[in-house]
Amino acid sequence: MPKTSTANSPQVPSSRSWRRNSLTDDSKIRMAAALATKQKSLELLFDYTKFHIGLYLTLTAAYITVAKAKSGADALFQLEQTFVWLAVVSFMCAGVAGGVIASSITQTSCRSSAEFLEGDIGPWEIEELQMKARIWTWIEHTAFWIGLIFAVLSFQVVQPLFVLLGIAVALVFLLLLRR
Questions:
Q1: Selection from 136, 60, 129 nearest residue 105 by Cα
Q2: pLDDT, the chain, mean
Q3: Every domain of the chain and the residues it spans
Q4: pLDDT by residue (tens digit) across 65-92?
Q5: Structure confidence at residue 158 (pLDDT)
Q6: Under the phi-then-psi rule, with left for phi > 0, alpha for psi from -120 to 50, and beta for the rest, what region is 63?
Q7: How confident is the model at residue 19 (pLDDT cuts 50, 70, 90)?
Q8: Which helix (H) or strand (E) holds 18?
Q9: Which residue, of 28, 40, 73, 145, has the fewest CB within 10 Å?
Q10: DSSP summary character for residue 70
Q11: CB within 8 A of 111, min separation 6: which ones?
Q12: What is the spatial distance between Cα 62 and Cα 147, in angstroms, rounded to a whole number?
């Protein structure tokens, strides 16, 4: 088969170079700005989640300190221990969910928070725990608020109406998990 010379044949630009050359400087700037904005949203989600993890750690440590504070042999506050432990476990769940989100952001190839939140993440690549990142954010926030409700309920001066509210919120949380 004879070789054909490409020296005299017209050069047809590839579709990629044609697109690159057909963009105006203004449209290139807009595209770069849009990509930077998307990337920034992922960075903000990471910072936001790190802040929450720090908040959960600090709040839990302060709450345990209050729960165990004593003046001499007597406790400073009379707390219902069941609610104390439910609050601590809820705060721990919020922290774990935040940790799953933050650690997954560091390993994602997604370019925006919107794209990241639609992807499946989970701890240790355990298939049963792989869920959309958005669901992990719901778990994180809901567990925190349930923990806060349990912490308030642990103080024995709280009205029984708040106990019913706590139970209702816990049921809503469980229904969200089943989705």
A1: 136
A2: 83
A3: 42-178
A4: 988 887 778 878 888 889 999 999 999 9
A5: 58
A6: alpha
A7: low
A8: helix 15-22
A9: 73
A10: E
A11: 35, 38, 39, 42
A12: 13
Distance (Å) of CA 43 to CA 102, 115, 135: 10, 13, 19
Q: Is 74 helix (H, G, I), strand (E, B) or coil?
A: strand
Report the greatest alpha carbon distance in the chain.
101
* Residue with the two structure tokens 């926030």: 141
- Cα distances from 148 to residues 39, 49, 55, 84, 94, in angstroms, run 33, 18, 12, 10, 11
Task: Tell me how far CA of residue 136 lies from CA of 5, 45, 116, in angstroms.
Answer: 60, 13, 11
Choose among 90, 98, 79: nearest CA to 145. 90
Alpha helices in the chain, H assignment, sequence order? 15-22, 25-68, 81-105, 113-118, 133-154, 160-178
Residue 45 has pLDDT above 50, yes or no: yes
- What does the alpha-carbon distance between residue 87 and residue 64 come to, in Å, rounded to a whole number? 10
pLDDT of 90-110, one tens digit each?
999 999 999 999 999 999 999
Q: How far apart (Å, rounded) are the C-alpha atoms in residues 106 and 100?
A: 10
User: Which DSSP letter does residue 6 get?
Assistant: S
Query: Amino acid identity, residue 148?
Result: L
What is d(CA 34, CA 40) in angstroms, rounded to the nearest whole number? 10
- For residues 14-34, give the mean pLDDT: 66
Which residue matches tokens 């050069």?
11
pLDDT at 105: 94
Per-residue pLDDT at 6 exceeds 60:
no
